[in-house]
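User: Could you check the structure of this?
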Amino acid sequence: MENTQYKVLMKIALGLTIAWIAWSLYDGAFKEKLDGEIHYYAANKYFEDGRYDSALNSYRKALTENPQLIHANRGIARSLMLLEQYDEALGVFNKVIEQEPEFSASYANRGILHDRMQNYTAAIADYEKAIQLDPEIAEGPTWLTRFLRNQAVKPPTILDRMKYLQSEMSKPEDQRVLQLPEKDEEQRPYKL
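Assistant: Sure, the predicted structure tokens are below.
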């Protein structure tokens, strides 16, 4: 019986290896690359590594090569936000939302930006719009995303933050606690 299981596992492993090699060949040699795509993928890697200056530069290079690459604009906005260049980030988020008004992650990220800028009413409105467009965004990052980011604990979601802000905004102004630096730092931008 063990011999049969071994043979089955070997065939599965061989099949997966062949599929991976075939996909790699297709993706590397035959799939048409868009202008700016190489810089865009490099920027994503820099972003995930927390190198936001390098990410910003690579996103801008990608956009120079392909002005229609909206994903690069989204990356620029997220990078600017994490570099605390809030006014410039807001301008880019507004442009991205104007170009693609049905993309929920842009509203979620602009909400996070408004939150960091202490414009809580606008943050709540953006969080609500993001959830209206895509209710699944309220669940936050999946277990796989958290695994790849090495995040053992699920960070607060935009739904959590929206409810908290709504609760605090309903209190008298002198009793509100709108910033929790330790918790706020855990919230990461959305990338879909």
